[in-house]
Design goal:
CATH architecture: Beta Barrel
Distance between the termini: 36 Å
Largest sheet: 9 strands, mixed
Number of strands: 9
Strand content: over 45%
Low-confidence stretches: 1-34, 38-51
Mean pLDDT: 76
Helix content: under 10%
Radius of gyration: 25 Å
């Protein structure tokens, strides 16, 4: 397989949405009737029950976040990537989850040199990841992920390209700018692959991956 520089842009979408409802003023009952305004009481009770609970009281579904990567590029060099992810908010600062990877890459004719044929590659796999935002208002975050990708690797013994499962174990950190209290924000991180192999790794030029990711 030809050398490929892969900078995966992770675009994650958090699915938590709810509104903080204001306090409701409940008028006093009229002394002449001695009756309580039941409609006001009912409205107040309904709105109070719908207010968001503390983080510890949130259900499993309320802690789930959704997102992934989507990359589209067309022309002499075509890239189509769809990599969904599902995460779980373990704490207010820590998210862990699973993801899937699919990528189609095509080099058009004459891409490498005049007369070179077109080349097509299909990559798939999965990953598990974790992201931790540092407390105390620091604009920093650390990230880690383990990934398994299946793609064609050149075999020097048979002089043929064969499909293999290639692992990657990345850790790193960088800048984090939160945009809401649901775990959303913008990440700019550098990740180092501790299993990097120049002969088989997806990014054969360097063990480093620079990534910009978005959580909403």
């Amino acid at each position: 397989m030809k050398k490929i520089v892969s900078i995966l842009i992770l675009t994650s979408l958090s699915a938590f949405t709810w509104a903080q409802l204001p306090d409701v003023y409940e008028p006093m009952s009229r002394p002449s009737s001695g009756r309580v305004d039941s409609s006001s009481t009912t409205t107040n009770s309904t709105r109070t029950s719908s207010a968001p609970a503390s983080f510890e009281d949130r259900s499993f579904a309320q802690r789930l976040v959704y997102g992934g990567n989507l990359q589209l590029s067309f022309g002499s060099f075509t890239v189509i990537e769809v990599s969904p992810r599902v995460g779980y908010r373990i704490t207010e600062d820590l998210i862990g989850g699973l993801g899937a990877n699919f990528m189609y890459i095509r080099y058009g004719e004459n891409f490498f040199y005049n007369g070179s044929p077109s080349l097509d590659y299909t990559i798939w796999g999965g990953n598990t990841f974790a992201s931790y935002s540092l407390p105390f208002g620091l604009p920093l975050a650390v990230q880690g992920e383990y990934e398994l990708l299946n793609f064609e690797v050149f075999n020097p013994t048979t002089f043929e390209e064969e499909r293999q499962w290639v692992p990657a174990l990345r850790f790193g950190g960088g800048y984090f700018q939160p945009i809401n209290n649901r775990g959303g924000g913008v990440y700019f991180v550098a990740l180092y692959d501790f299993l990097w192999d120049q002969d088989v790794s997806f990014n054969r030029r360097s063990p480093w991956t620079l990534r910009a990711s978005f959580f909403f």
